[in-house]
Amino acid sequence: MKQDNNIIIMKNINKRYQMGDNEVIALENVSLEVGAGEFVAILGPSGSGKSTLMNIMGCIDTADSGEYFLAGENVADLDDDQLALIRNREVGFIFQQFNLLPRYRAIQNVELPLLLRGMPRDQAREIAEQVMGQVGLKDRADHKPSELSGGQQQRVAIARAMVGNPSILLADEPTGNLDTRSGQEIMGMMKELNSQGHTVILITHDLEVARMAKRVIRMLDGKINMEESYELPAAGSGR
Questions:
Q1: Which of 4, 93, 136, 196 has its CA 20 to 30 A from that of 36?
Q2: CATH number of 6-229: 3.30.460.10, 3.40.50.300, 3.30.450.20, 2.40.110.10?
Q3: pTM to 2 decimal places
């Protein structure tokens, strides 16, 4: 069910969590469509439901009710192995905490998604080296995460996310642990990846970061509160 070039279609998504004796409504009747090639920011304060929404989009979590179609697949019809497959094939994740394996060198972190697909190591290494070059870290390929700056670690995380050429990049507060300059560089990379055809979905609490996307979806108390659109500056331009 892929309609009007939408890569994500969500209809009346609900998600609740039990915390002790209290039931927390994380998402309530959320309906959303994201077209292939869009650059969308999901903006909201802590507890607004934006991270839960991202986890469902990325097939890390599942909704209690509602319909979710990812790249034409009804997620509710997929078993755990199929969910893992579509997650690995369609989605690249970028996290605030980088989530790099500390004992692995940068190049090993980047090639890991390809190895998990069953790709031969030599082929995976060749592709990983190309992507490391694209993010400007070819000369840091043999460094471990602890030997890299925060901005460099996030570039490695971006390389890992894009090494499998996913349709969607899900970025959860990708500038949250970075200084201003490094954050601007990472957002420039997000714009560049979007210009190359990737659908980019950015989760953030920062309005200034959100406005670097073309479309901003504001969330509050588990619901979509408002949508706004902006003219997207060219990749690499200032704002």
A1: 136
A2: 3.40.50.300
A3: 0.86
